[in-house]
Amino acid sequence: MSLRRMILMRHASAAVGTGRDVDRPLTRHGQDEAHRVGLRLRIDGPIPDRVLCSSARRCRETWDCVSTGLAAATLPAIDVTYDDRLYNASTGSLLDTIRDEQESRVLLVLSHNPGISLLGLELGRGDPRAEVDLREGFAPSTLAVFEVRTRWDELSTASSRLLRIDRIDRDEAG
User: Fold this and answer.
1) Could you read off the pLDDT tens digit of each residue along the chain, which spans 174 residues?
2) Beta-bridge partners for 16
3) CA 62, 138, 109: angle at the middle one, nearest 5?
């Protein structure tokens, strides 16, 4: 079994609103954060071949900005699914959705806190360095890249290893 990569990402900074939570858009700052995530992935990799994205507006807009930064139009097609199950999903729901995957080699999962950050912590469990990094949580536009040594339907703590965590604003502040 060849290695797979999984990118867990929290949506970019969203507006605080009085309307329905699912309809909150990104702020201008959030659009910039997400674009910079795409630039970072274009330079440092990995480039996803599949994206599972929450159907919430802020997640869809995050993916649009990430794909612009990636220059996705110049890449092979990236298969994107907007999934209602990922909206404010628990760790269990996120895992169930990921385990339904079949063919992707590099999977980007774009969702919300606390589920996405708790899933990262769960998958990094047992690696002291990863646990310290992941305990800081996922601020907007944070992503964690994992190596996965099994099929998606067998994803577990034992089959995954944190490669890096990127906190866009903090990493680029100085």
Assistant:
1) 579 999 999 999 999 977 899 999 999 999 999 999 999 999 999 999 999 999 999 999 999 999 999 987 677 889 999 999 999 999 999 999 999 998 899 999 999 999 999 999 999 988 888 888 899 889 999 999 999 999 999 999 999 999 999 998 765 543
2) none
3) 50
Q: Report the 10 Å Cβ neighbour count for 87.
A: 17
Look-up of token digits 């360095």: 129
> Are the beta carbons of 8 and 112 closer than 8 angstroms?
no
Q: Three-state SS for 23?
A: helix
> Radius of gyration (Cα) for the chain, nearest Å?
15
Q: SS in 3 state form for 52-100?
A: EEECCHHHHHHHHHHHHHHCHHHCCCCEEEEEHHHCCCCHHHHHHHHHC
pTM: 0.94
Q: Are 10 and 117 in contact (CB under 8 A)?
A: yes
Q: CATH number for the 4-171 domain, one of 3.40.50.1240, 2.60.40.1120, 3.40.50.1010, 3.55.40.20?
A: 3.40.50.1240
